Amino acid sequence: MTMLLLDGGPVAPDSQVTRTGGTPLAPTGTPWPACAACAAPLQFLAQIRLGDLPGHADHAPAGVLALFMCANRPGQCAQWSPTAGGNLALLLPDRGLEPVPAPKGAPRELLGLGAVRAAVPARTAPGAATILGRIGGTPDWLQDDETPSCPTCARPMAFVVELAEGPDPVTAMNFGSGRAYAHTCTPCGRAAFLWQC
Ligand SMILES: [Zn+2]
Ligand SMILES: [Zn+2]
To answer: At 111, which helix (H) or strand (E)?
Structure first.
């Protein structure tokens, strides 16, 4: 089953909830990740609580998916690719997470989005609601099915979330006017991120 992710409005930058923008949370000592193509720090895009997935049982182990992408050289680091290193998806435990210190000297706008928005799962969207994406079920591919294979076990990864760029172009993620898709392989602790337009 797929659910919508609705814009829940502004939320604290270090909030534990599913959100776009703000500060990444990770286990203590996690370094701010860098782009594999240009070596600049990646931009933090979103965190998704896997406990928000439709049908997720309260007692089942959950986690947090943290999504990053290179904003240093738009379009030049294969930011759309699940394997090129111009983006990064981390599957983290859902407890003991702390804000990751920002790398010194990096321009603020390259590290984060211009706004922080809670993303709230909902079955239907009220008339005026802004839809940030969809969670669970199957992806609504804009192009061909690009379900990534797990880099550890080589099985097809499980779809978690689809993200739109966001309602405000000034603060939005850049998917070339398209959509992004995140997948995980929970047994292997792996995650992948890609976008299509
Ligand atoms: Zn880069
Ligand atoms: Zn795997």
So the answer is: helix 108-111
